[in-house]
Specification:
Elements: H1 9-27, H2 32-42, H3 44-64, H4 73-101, H5 124-146, H6 148-166, H7 170-174, H8 176-180, H9 187-199, H10 209-231, H11 254-257, H12 259-271, H13 279-289, H14 291-304, H15 308-314, H16 320-344, H17 346-362
Length: 363
């Protein structure tokens, strides 16, 4: 089935809400008072971004017909890596400078090659996942175009087996980053992004009764699992719990929970406006367009101010509620404003990098 393409405000709004949620996840306290809100709202932002990666790249392949008349691997990789690296390079340099100025431990090693910053912050692993995604997506696209249902089943099995076997794999067991940053963990939810573009968005409804039943069952299982694991801290024998169940983001919940963020995305896509002149709505949509830049900025922000809520509350100047409000306002104001400015003026950095690379090539 061919997918008609146009730029959609709904998608930008979803991205905007998701990136705001990412910032909120990192600036709110990790305690039981916020755990329900965190697990069922803000923590789903990561999985929605994973779904959007699949959805948006599928849309790009359909629009540009990358697979027509043969796949031009070099052209595709060059285009995607430039879009990935040009915002990342200045963030990497700033991260290095901040680490040196603040006398922090600087990391420069093997992980540097896959997007690990010298002064890493929360969510850095998403950058590594994004790099892997760029490399493997053409294969995922081909598989889905030819065998959509089989591809959905296969990616679910792969993600499930990854979770089940991860506790028995030494590297995954000893290094949290390898586990978090492994794209196999997110492969199924990424593939759901392809499905949602092709099977739901054209008519803003699920196209068949069978798919509706599967999704309803999937959502029910996801919600039950999130309640059990994220709220009651139940451990499940099959899954990797070696980082504990106190914080849901540290557990093996992605593949089982995948249908819940899918349902959130479909609901948001159905009710959000396709066009609006409201300034707040337009601001959120613009934030969505700048979401990658905002995400990179918030990594730096929280690398320096790792837990702003704790810092403010421990000062003793404010009660917990006021401390939380200040943490939210400051975190959102800094990360979104700087990220939006970064997105707006990135072309200046692009021009500079283009000149640098051209000089190197000429030499």
């Amino acid at each position: 089935m061919s997918v008609k393409q146009k730029h959609l405000m709904e998608v930008d709004l979803i991205k905007g809400i998701a990136i705001i949620s990412v910032v909120l996840v990192h600036c709110l306290p990790y305690n039981d008072s916020f755990m329900t809100l965190r697990i069922f709202a803000f923590s789903m932002a990561l999985l929605i971004f994973m779904l959007l990666m699949g959805r948006n790249m599928y849309a790009s392949f359909e629009k540009h017909q990358y697979m027509e008349n043969g796949f031009h691997t070099v052209s595709y990789l060059k285009n995607r890596l430039i879009r990935f690296l040009y915002p990342f390079i200045p963030i990497f340099i700033i991260s290095l400078i901040l680490g040196l100025l603040l006398n922090q431990d600087i990391y420069l090693g093997v992980y540097t090659l896959v997007g690990y910053l010298p002064l890493p912050g929360p969510g850095n692993y998403f950058v590594t996942v994004l790099l892997q995604f760029i490399i493997i997506f053409p294969l995922l696209y081909l598989a889905y175009k030819r065998y959509p249902r089989l591809t959905l089943i296969a990616t679910f099995v792969i993600s499930f087996l990854f979770e089940v076997t991860s506790s028995y794999i030494g590297a995954l067991n000893s290094d949290a980053y390898i586990y978090y940053a492994n794209i196999l963990r997110y492969l199924f939810v990424i593939t759901l992004g392809l499905w949602v573009l092709e099977a739901f968005e054209p008519n803003k409804r699920i196209r068949s009764t069978l798919e509706t039943v599967i999704i309803l069952i999937g959502v029910a299982v996801s919600v039950i699992y999130l309640i059990a694991f994220g709220i009651f801290h139940w451990e499940f024998a099959l899954f990797n719990n070696f980082w504990g169940t106190e914080y849901p983001t540290l557990g093996s919940y992605v593949v089982i929970a995948s249908f819940y963020p899918l349902a959130l995305y479909m609901l948001a896509y159905k009710i959000l406006p396709s066009a609006s002149n409201n300034r707040i709505v337009k601001f959120i949509a613009y934030t969505g367009k700048a979401s990658y830049h905002v995400f990179l900025v918030q990594i730096l922000f929280f690398a320096v101010f790792y837990n702003p809520y704790a810092t403010i509350s421990q000062s003793g100047l404010f009660d917990p509620v006021i401390s939380g409000i200040i943490s939210i306002v400051v975190s959102l104001a800094v990360t979104i404003s700087l990220g939006a400015l970064f997105y707006k003026y990135e072309y200046k950095i692009d021009n500079l990098l283009n000149r640098v690379f051209r000089i190197k090539k000429d030499m």
